[in-house]
Specification:
About 30% of the residues lie in helices and about 20% in strands. It has about 450 residues and is α+β, with helices and mostly antiparallel strands. The protein is elongated, with a radius of gyration of 27 Å.
Length: about 450
């Protein structure tokens, strides 16, 4: 059905450079003709709503007491009625908007737009999230710093939008709900396959790092509960005897480089590029704080490390890649000290016990792992690329449909009554798949 979509029979110039031509029976109007601003306060009994870039508007889930926020004066919060469109003034250019699912309260910094008769708010929420429209929003926003630009009501109401008839707005959203359900199912199926491939790869890595590849080797008890038995020729040693771990003030003593972009490693792993403190050599880098606490990276040449990273400088006789995979298997995140903001204490992980094969066997394990995981990595990359293509297709489909480049009226009319999405929304969380890599040359 999607493949059979065609353009409308007749078009006209919209008068808007970003929009181009629109169906001949559509209008182009100011947003002020579609929505009125709602600025009602004093409804402290209503639930708090939040506006998310990914999920639109939803009731805020405070969770446990550690996350709960105390609102000083709910009477100042704005009332939003079910069906209103609400947007974050500072993040509207990124798509931080949505349709209110229930009556509730939003931050005084948000705008609440009440739809006039003939306006389907879900259609306009989809339109406002398209790339071209968000670029127009960015141009209309005002502020001293670009990232803090705000789209106030006065600018929003002057912006112009395509305006199909109300029944066509509803048909467009009916079709997009159905199409999104189809695409979600395809993405979910591929993500399940990826999860199985990752599980298989992690099992291979875990066994290789903790047992080796020789199935006939004699084993001995490791006396470490999570580890079990290890080959007889392996040792059990504390991590502090395998590598010198630095974090905090020790990181700031690194050499200053005047120029040149290098990767930056902080509490959440690789963060981007900068030109301040650098280190040289072959190191294992551990995220010390935040959501990626315990995340493992390998240095490739020079890099920057903040005080929120842990840098592992290996002792002689240790393979960098083998040691990094060992730390992944040990799952260092479980040794963090706080649930709200996880943080690794160097002194704690320093004293953990680990299995240590001879250097030659470490290097052999690394080499054989590269070959053993190569087809799995290739399959994972292929499925991830297919998911990216599906997401790109969905983005393009929504943009083409809401701007009138494709006519979905007949397709929507043929859909069954229960044509909405029949699958849960795609999870926001991505798989944590630490890829085994050979980018780091062994010392």
């Amino acid at each position: 059905m999607i493949a059979g979509l065609k353009p409308y029979a007749e078009y006209k110039d919209s008068g808007l450079p970003w929009l181009g031509q629109v169906p001949a029976h559509w209008r182009t109007v100011r947003n002020g003709s579609l929505f009125g601003q709602r600025s009602q306060t004093g409804f402290a009994e209503l639930p708090i709503l939040e506006v998310s870039l990914k999920t639109g508007v939803q009731v805020r889930a405070f969770g446990n007491s550690k996350r709960k926020q105390i609102m000083s004066d709910l009477a100042k919060y704005k009332r939003a009625v079910q069906g209103d469109l609400a947007y974050n003034t500072m993040r509207m250019w990124q798509g931080a908007l949505g349709v209110c699912p229930v009556d509730g309260l939003v931050s005084p910094a948000y705008v609440v737009a009440r739809p006039y008769p003939g306006v389907e708010p879900l259609y306009f929420a989809a339109l406002f999230r398209t790339g071209d429209y968000m670029a127009e929003i960015d141009n209309a926003s005002r502020g001293i710093v670009k990232d803090r630009n705000r789209l106030y009501w006065d600018q929003f109401k002057q912006m112009q939008s395509p305006f199909p008839p109300r029944d066509e707005q509803a048909a467009i959203m009916r079709f997009l709900d159905w199409a999104n359900g189809r695409l979600e199912r395809a993405i979910r199926a591929k993500r399940k396959v990826i999860a199985l491939l990752i599980e298989q790869k992690q099992a291979i890595v875990r066994r290789a790092v903790t047992r080796g590849f020789d199935a006939t080797v004699l084993l001995k008890p490791s006396m470490i509960p999570w580890l079990g038995q290890i080959p007889q020729q392996w040792e059990i040693r504390r991590l502090k005897h395998l590598a010198h771990l630095q974090s905090g003030s020790g990181i700031t003593s690194l050499q200053i480089e005047p120029s040149g972009p290098f990767p930056v490693f902080g509490g959440n792993g690789l963060r981007g590029f900068s030109t301040r403190f650098t280190h040289k050599g072959h190191y294992v880098l551990i995220g010390r704080q935040g959501a990626l606490c315990g995340n493992i990276n390998f240095s490739v040449g020079k890099f920057f490390a903040s005080e929120h990273a842990v840098v592992a400088d290996l002792q002689s006789g240790m393979s960098v890649l083998w040691f990094g995979e060992l730390l992944r298997v040990m799952n260092l995140n479980q040794y963090s000290q706080s649930a709200a903001q996880p943080g690794l204490a160097v002194e704690r992980i320093n004293n953990l016990y680990a299995p240590v094969p001879p250097l030659g066997e470490q290097q052999e394990i690394v080499e054989r792992l590269q070959h053993a995981t190569l087809p799995l990595n290739a399959a994972i990359s292929r499925f991830n690329r297919e998911i990216d293509l599906l997401r790109e297709y969905r983005t393009r489909l929504v943009a083409d449909v809401v701007t009138g480049k494709l006519d979905v009226r007949e397709a929507a009319a043929r859909l069954p009554d229960e044509a909405g999405p029949d699958i849960e929304a795609e999870p926001i969380e991505e798989f944590d798949d630490p890829e085994f890599t050979d980018e780091v040359a062994e010392s």
